[in-house]
Amino acid sequence: QQMSETELPFLRGDKSQDVETLITQADEAATKAHTSLAEAQTFVAKKLVEVARFSDGPAKAVKEEIDMMQKRIEDGRERLQQFRSNLADRKRTHLLEEVDAKVQSAEEEVLRLAEAARDLSNLGAVGEAVAEGGREAVERANVAERAAQASLVVARKYLLQRTADLKKLAIAGAGSGGELGRLQTRVNNVQQEIAKFRNTTKDAEERLRVKQMVGEVASRLQMTEAEVDRVASVAVTASKEAAVEPDPEQVDRLEKATKSASTKLSATANLVDIKLKTASGFLREELAAMRSKIAAAEKKLASVVTAAKEQKERLLCTEMTVEATA
Torsion-angle region of residue 34: left (phi > 0), alpha (psi -120 to 50) or beta? Predict the structure, then answer.
């Protein structure tokens, strides 16, 4: 009766009760049933000894009743065996579901880690300062990696423990191996994904460190580029005005602006060139990108210098012509 009662929640598929508790109750009921059957068997054995002392007449009727009791005991043993077999199946299913839940949790953490890692591509282009939110993105990736790693540890622990538990069951070999193998494969995949994203995060941390290290140089380069652009703009304006007649003040301003921009650009270029001599890895990539920008600025400034020189020469020619005709 107790066995039937403990089996009802499983047969109904009742999810509201704790499976671990139900299995414990079923185990207790099976143990009690086994004890009761053993006691009944002992009782029947004693009665058989006693019946042997009776004469054939009375002994026959009693023996028939004892045989019926023996049949009921045998039926009880068969039912107990089936109950324990079903219980072992349920234990196996429950153990595998526990591992599956932990592995699934680890897989979900890896998805969150992947999402955090995608933001690491927005740290800023090579040769540029750290993009807004770059440091926060690296920190989020680190937090996500730690969470995924902790979840993986739990999943692996559950897999090892439940594998040992399954080996203790009588039907441990009935299908558990394949399912445990698939769970192990999923755990391995989680570990590989975490390792991959850990490398991505480490690369991002290194790039962030490099960008912070060359941040001052990058800022100086940006200001120098802006100054070169302003000088180029002034040169265009001066060139249009000089087409009519060179303005001495305009020519003088352009010459001074050109010298200032050239001095700053040369200083920045020398600083980058010195660092490039010993740089490697991400630092070399950053500095090489800066050097390319400096080269473009130098080319632009060179054309401005040429234009400024031509305007100054035209101004001198004009002044000489005026002096000659005076």
Answer: alpha
